[in-house]
C-alpha cells in the first residue's frame, strides 16, 4: 500500500487524479551560459514536488507533473555593475 498523497491536478483542461511521489536527489547539475555582454549565468532546476497522474502518454507511460524552482547565480563584469556612492 502506498503512503503517497492523492491529489487532483489540472491537466489539459481537466482535473485529473494523481498521486504525489517521493523522490531523492541523484544529481543536480549546474548549467553555465556566457552572455554576449560578458556575464556568465549559472542555473539549475531544483525539484520540489512530483505528481504521477492517472493519465498515460502514447508510449503507455504515466504522465508526471513536477513542481520546481530555478536557482540562478550570475557573474557580472564590473563595467555592468551599478555604481554606488
What does it look like?
The structure is a single chain. With 85 residues, the protein is an all-beta fold. It has one domain. Helices cover 0% and strands 56% of the residues. It contains no helices and 5 strands. The protein has strands at 6-11, 14-20, 31-34, 40-56, 62-75. Strands 1, 2, 3, 4 and 5 form a 5-stranded antiparallel β-sheet that branches. Strand 4 (40-56) and strand 5 form a beta hairpin. The protein is elongated, with a radius of gyration of 20 Å.
Fold blueprint:
Blueprint lengths: L5 E6 L2 E7 L10 E4 L5 E17 L5 E14 L10
Antiparallel strand pairs: 1-2, 2-4, 3-4, 4-5
Question: What brief labels describe this structure?
Answer:
mainly beta; 5-stranded antiparallel β-sheet; 0% helix
The DSSP helix count reads 0
- General shape: elongated
Helix percent reads under 10%
Structural class: mainly beta
Tally of strands: 5
Which whole number gives the mean pLDDT? 93
- End-to-end separation in angstroms reads 63 Å
**How much beta, percentage-wise?**
over 45%
Please provide the ordered H/E string of secondary-structure elements: EEEEE
The main sheet comes to: 5 strands, antiparallel
Instruction: From the alpha carbons, calculate the radius of gyration and give it in angstroms.
Output: 20 Å
Number of domains: 1
Unreliable stretches covering 5 or more consecutive residues: none
Structure, briefly:
The chain has no helices and 5 strands. The chain is mainly beta and 85 residues long.
Amino acid at each position: 500500500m502506498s503512503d503517497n498523497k492523492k491529489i487532483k491536478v489540472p491537466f489539459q483542461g481537466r482535473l485529473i487524479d494523481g498521486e504525489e511521489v517521493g523522490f531523492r536527489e541523484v544529481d543536480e547539475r549546474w548549467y553555465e551560459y556566457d552572455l554576449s555582454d560578458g556575464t556568465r549565468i549559472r542555473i539549475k532546476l531544483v525539484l520540489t514536488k512530483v505528481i504521477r497522474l492517472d493519465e498515460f502518454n502514447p508510449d503507455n507511460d504515466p504522465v508526471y507533473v513536477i513542481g520546481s524552482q530555478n536557482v540562478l547565480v550570475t557573474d557580472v563584469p564590473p563595467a555592468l555593475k551599478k555604481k554606488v556612492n
